[in-house]
């Protein structure tokens, strides 16, 4: 039995919520890479991780979304290792730690970056995260299937379980990635790439998540990872606000479960209160 199968033996697992917006409430300046706070303000990063543990998350991520050598500068290895250490310290054995790997921010199709450079950046990040003790690696918020496949291949080299998650936010029905990939195309490509699970995060809000989940599940036999946004972002002055309540968000728990989700959490705008509401919804449905 695989490690993912062992973890899922007891049923659907609740993950965490947003990190960037939570760090901003703790003083992170807009435009600053959150990852650098792993070194500069580890106590504030740990406070975010601990808040999700206290809310009932069974899986928490790491503050390493942009920590690859293409997306940012600095001591990338130290940032990644610190990110895992912070989340593991907060989890204290009560939750699994899945380390976050985001896109490079450069487009392969436009020639902004080559495959070799992207693969090397992903491999270096994945190795640092694995060495630091992550339980699994999450390749997330992807839009380019080719880039995601490179990231998955690099992550698989560590021997850890690897999840590939895409942002579906384009097309008439908001069911395509920015690069035009459908859930079916994504699922097929990630099975071929060797991912252990596939899913959707960010992109659209909770209302569209069950449909995406059903389409991904119908297209492959992998566990499905779902972390939608807390509604749609709206500007209020210089701040971004999201228009969905924790209760409304959690009201979709049963639909996601029935659609075949194996992991459910929140993305942008979702606070620990959203996770607490999901936990309550799961308890009420049992």
Quick take:
This protein is α/β, with parallel strands linked by helices. 42% of the residues lie in helices and 17% in strands. The strands form 2 sheets. It has an 8-stranded parallel beta sheet with strand order 1-10-7-6-5-4-3-2.
Low-confidence stretches: none
The quaternary structure here is single chain
In CATH's first tier, which class applies? Alpha Beta
Strand order of the largest sheet: 1-10-7-6-5-4-3-2
Count of helix runs: 12
Query: How many structurally independent domains?
Result: 1
* Strand and helix order: HEHHHEHEHEHEHEHEEEHHEH
Any idea what the CATH superfamily is called?
Homocysteine-binding-like domain
Strand content: 15-25%
Q: What is the third-level CATH name, the topology? A: TIM Barrel
Kindly describe this structure.
There is one protein chain. The chain has helices at residues 3-7, 20-24, 37-40, 42-55, 76-91, 115-131, 145-156, 183-193, 209-219, 246-250, 253-258, 272-285, and strands spanning 13-14, 59-60, 96-101, 136-142, 162-166, 197-205, 224-229, 233-236, 239-242, 261-264. Strand 2, helix 5 and strand 3 (96-101) form a beta-alpha-beta unit. The protein has one domain: TIM Barrel (Alpha-Beta Barrel), CATH 3.20.20. Helices cover 42% and strands 17% of the residues. With 286 residues, the protein is of the alpha/beta class. It has an eight-stranded parallel sheet. Strands 8-9 form a two-stranded antiparallel ribbon.
């Amino acid at each position: 039995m695989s490690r993912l199968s062992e973890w899922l033996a007891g049923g659907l697992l609740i993950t965490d919520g947003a990190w960037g917006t939570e760090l901003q409430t703790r003083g992170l300046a807009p435009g600053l890479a959150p990852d650098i706070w792993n070194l500069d303000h580890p106590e504030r990063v740990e406070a975010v991780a601990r808040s999700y543990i206290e809310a009932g998350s069974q899986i928490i991520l790491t503050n390493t979304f942009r920590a690859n050598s293409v997306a940012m500068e600095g001591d990338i290895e130290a940032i990644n290792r610190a990110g895992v250490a912070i989340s593991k310290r907060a989890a204290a054995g009560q939750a699994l730690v899945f380390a976050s790997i985001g896109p490079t921010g450069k487009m392969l199709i436009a020639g902004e970056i080559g495959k070799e450079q992207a693969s090397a950046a992903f491999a270096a990040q994945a190795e640092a995260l694995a060495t630091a003790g992550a339980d699994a690696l999450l390749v997330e918020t992807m839009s380019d299937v080719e880039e995601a496949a490179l990231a998955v291949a690099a992550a698989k080299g560590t021997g850890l379980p690897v999840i590939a998650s895409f942002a579906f936010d384009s097309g008439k029905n908001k069911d395509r990635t920015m690069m035009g990939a459908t859930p079916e195309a994504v699922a097929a490509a990630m099975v071929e790439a060797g991912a252990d699970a596939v899913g959707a995060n960010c992109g659209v809000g909770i209302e569209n998540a069950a449909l995406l989940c059903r389409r991904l599940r119908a297209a492959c036999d992998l566990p499905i990872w779902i972390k939608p946004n807390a509604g749609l972002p709206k500007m209020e002055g210089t701040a971004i606000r999201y228009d969905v309540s924790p209760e409304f968000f959690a009201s979709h728990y049963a639909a996601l479960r029935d659609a075949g989700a194996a992991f459910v959490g929140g993305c942008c705008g979702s606070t620990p209160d959203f996770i607490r509401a999901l936990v309550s919804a799961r308890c009420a449905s049992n």
